[in-house]
Amino acid sequence: MDPNKPPYLPRPPGVPDVPVARGRGLHADESLLGRARGLGVSADEPSVGRARGLAVVLEEPWVGRARGLARIADEPSVGRARGLARIADEPSVGRARGLARIADEPSVGRARGLARIADEPSVGRARGLAVVLEEPWVGRARGLARIADEPSVGRARGLARIADEPSVGRARGLAVVLEEPWVGRARGLARIADEPSVGRALGLAQIADEPSVGRARGLAVALEEPWVALAEPVAGTGRGLASTALDALLFPYVRGSPGLGRYKPLSVAQGMEEEEGGRIGRARGLLHTSQEPVAGKGRSTALFLKESEPLGKSEHVDTSEVIPCLQEEEPPKVQADDPGPGSFLLSMFRGMGIEQGRPWGRGAATLGRGAVGEHKDVQSVVPPVVSAASEAGDAHYYAGGFAGRGLSGVGKAVGFPAGRGSGAPLIPKEIPVTPAVRPPKAEPKMEAGGKPLQKVGTMGHPVSIASNYVPIRCRNEAVFQYHVVFTPNVESVSMRFGMMKDHRSTTGDIMAFDGSILYLPKRLEEVVHLKAERKTDNREIDIKIQMTKILPPHSDLCIPFYNVVLRRVMKILGLNLIGRNHYDPRSAVVLSKHRLQVWPGYSTAIKHTDGGLYLAVDISHKVLRNDSVLDVMNEIYQQSRESFKDECTKELIGSIVITRYNNRTYRIDDIEWDKSPKHSFTMADGSETTFVDYYRKNYGITVKELDQPLLVHRPKERSKPGGKQVITGEILILPELSFMTGIPEKMKKDFRAMKDLTMHINVSVEQHTHSLKQLLHNISTSQEAVKELSRWGLEISSDILVTQGRTLPMETICLQSATFVTSPTVDWSREVVRDSSISCIPLDRWVVFYPRRAADQAEELVSTFGKVAGPMGLRLARPVCVELRDDRTETYVKTIQSQLSSEPNVQLVVCIVTGNRDDLYSAIKKLCCVQSPCPSQVINVRTISQPQKLRSVAQKILLQMNCKLGGELWTVHVPLKHLMVIGVDVHHDTSKKTQSVMGFVASLNSLMTKWYSRVTFQMPNEEIINGFRVCLLAALQKYYEVNHSFPEKIVIYRDGVSDGQLKTVELYEIPQILKCFETFPNYEPKLVFIVVQKRINTTLYAFGGNRFGTPPPGTVLDHTVTNGEWVDFFLMAHSIRQGCGFPTHYISIYNTANLTPDHLQRLTFKMCHLYWNWPGTIRVPAPCKYAHKLAYLSAQFLHSEPAIQLCDKLYFL
């Protein structure tokens, strides 16, 4: 017998002759494990578990049930993953599927995606993209790893540093250079070249190193192979491993070698004493160089059998003492109908987060390839037996199984048990094995709601708050969702609708159907087959209706057809749908003096909130003009005949018009000057007709002007169910039959006209609540409306919601030498002009430009500046006054350019203009913000023409000028240190429809008085910020220049995001931000990302004594009407003098700073005090308002990025 190869092992009596596989390899081979089969070469690792494969030099094994071929230096495919890895690839692990590229790590756990070169994958349920040489995010961890990092594994949170291994399992911590991670739930630090303990974690082994396994805790020696008994280490509940004769030859003198079976360990060289028996499993022992990490209570990815009772003795380690506050949960038990092999596999894959009953692998049934009854060879099962020879003999393991494709069809190997500890002989006994079970077919169950979020704060004074939300009670217990299949397929959706309507006797009269998904308020059989006849070819169609889900009545999937029902109710009440709102033309208010009509109406929507189902209803008004588009065109023609077409294009393109014959609104996208109502078009049935005939036949309208051009409306792309994009053709509209909507621009500048209009639009709180109650009364008294609602089991309450909110404490305003608490009206306009600002910039070199006819007003303004500047702490020198011969745009631009060229040290340019001229304003701002960067102030002569108001106007202008120079006006106390607050908003460029503008403003100091601003341009109508990283990197560098350190916490307020874009922002924008932090070594700030929504239909009222009023500033509502998926709240920070309280909605979608709801609300309220253009609170945080002003200026007037020299000043106020 070859002394370098292990002998064949004897088998116990009664066990059939099932030979145990041996490795046919060269020197230094480990034997193949279980019933594994494969060929090894020098330094090979064995195929582990039941895997089968061929290994090459330096290969790691395929672990668990994986099957595949690896090449040189490959890591194995682990768990149930399938795939082939390329050179230096890590495998696809867990449930991940995909192919990794060169040097890639795989997508691990449930993650899906492709990693880049040398990337580690996204692991577990983590989401994200890895970068070069990164290790993946593992488990449910969140975060981005850097170059050569190992991931945060399990549920750990945190970022690992360069070459660090992450905390694995639920552990939290940072590892050191080149460390392998702590695996399982362990906590600890590993050293260079360590291998991890294999619990639930999947680690990477280096050449010849294997980790300590199971729950064992111990340190391994450099270059050691694990102690194996015909197997790679058995993980799970930590059974011991017995060595083979090969082990004895390889490691006769290694300190800490384990014992064979349960008896004494290998002998050591004379003079070398072992410190402790190498007890594996739960045993605790210490070995030497290249320590193994603490393994926690993790379960391994290898196979294990469940013992009927503990075997032998060992020194146990209670890891709950090592890892405080971490307790292991018991794995879910698998119910088995029939005894048989395989449940230990279920336990293993449960430990890996893999559900039972999912078909994986080729020809899979329940558990991979060749489940019971599906393989081609012997199907007899023999229970595995463990036997022991004597105290000095070897412990051996035999297991019966399918001689062909493996036990329970998993790989081609058999699992293995082993002894535990050392000292006592192993008593032969059978180990019960639970069978692999094919789970029964799952019946549709009611969807469960998610765990409620902690979003309710406690700070402030409680107040009674009413809202425009109306409770809805749903009497139905559930809504049933069905999948409908037509065989043969019916392409026409309308034909599908007709076929379903023919079977109302089965489905009922009430249903919601989109062509493939059917919702019913009643339950059908699990599968229903119906027959229908296609009218086009009289072919019989089989309709299969199969139940897929049982939805609770408040499910988000039910909301769309609830709103369809609500539309029917509003139509029953006689309200017309215009756009998304319903209006009552019978109650129209006619303003004949201004040729306007105001239609009152409602905006309605059924929502699912934290409090349940609610009807959100608000008052809306539609302003219609008595002028048709043709009237507007005639008026333009009378004023400018030479440039008639250009002026019409400028006036009409982008306007919204309404066609009163069908009460539909359209946006004018173009004008067809070459077409008229006499032209013909093709109708849906293929016939042709002229516009004149069409309107006469269908609407009884006689077109009077036959030579008028046609208006063009291009509908936006709309998606049908199933994701198909539908693009309809152009819609041509007659100007004679189209009426303008909205308030004319001229009227907006007419104070008296606007006063008359706002009397009917801005209603009081009493009028607002009365209108809401009137609508609820009309619904409850309409039998037809109540019947329509009751079909779906809906019942709308007759009263609006009254609940409890809070009023936040008033803030303290800090000036240079004075502090004061804000008044209930949150107005401090008197204090800021009476006391000095925090810092004032001396204005020594400034120039005032004015036309000749405004010379008197300019001189009076400069004189008033000198009088009011002293008390405000400002120091002004006499400006250089430049009188212009006229007020043409070219005159202003050339004169300013000449002045700035002759005096390059000018601090400020002041321009006094006549009238509201956008072209002149745009030219001045382009010159001073882009071409020759210098802060500028444009003043309308009308603003300074009233002597009684001049002093107050001059004070406000001086404050604004001080801001533009870099001065600081006031602040509030923010207790968070090393904090950066960022505001972001997007505005769409009106002149260039090919781009949009993002405004970015960030604070630079702890007082929130220094700001850094940038602008980026992007594609049209694109709210997602592609240039966010550029702006944030520049802001962080600027912050470092000012403070000599980076901020520890960053709070971002993102404006202009709708509810449908929240997930996109979470998955796209936030990763960009996190990528920025990797640019700076060892920089891991805490991040809070808050979405700001102003355009909402939520209204708040103060309620007391059965009366409704205006809520005070600082009112917060953070429950009942909030979103169940996010931490959000409604805050009304500003003071309202007239009308209702319209709060702002704040949604926290990312928070690693662990700021509580109270912190978020208080910080947001503080930020609403810091807008220096208004001495009071505003609706949104100041950084958001600054970002909006900057984006608006760049999009409307500059159309390019401002000069970088102005980025640290608020030049855009």
TrEMBL record:
Residues 908-1199 form the Piwi domain. Residues 628-742 form the PAZ domain. Its main location: cytoplasm. CDD domains: PAZ_piwi_like, Piwi_piwi-like_Euk. GO terms for cellular component: P granule. It is found in: Cytoplasm. Keywords: Cytoplasm, Developmental protein, Differentiation, Endonuclease, Hydrolase, Meiosis, Methylation, Nuclease, RNA-binding, RNA-mediated gene silencing, Translation regulation. Residues 1-23, 427-454 are annotated as: Disordered. Pfam families: ArgoL1, PAZ, Piwi, Piwi_N. One of its GO terms (molecular function) is endonuclease activity. Residues 1-16 have a biased composition (Pro residues). Its cofactor is Mg(2+). GO terms for biological process: cell differentiation; meiotic cell cycle; regulation of translation; regulatory ncRNA-mediated gene silencing. Belongs to the argonaute family. Piwi subfamily. Component of the PET complex. This is Piwi-like protein 2. It comes from Ictalurus punctatus (Channel catfish). The lineage of its organism: Eukaryota, Metazoa, Chordata, Craniata, Vertebrata.
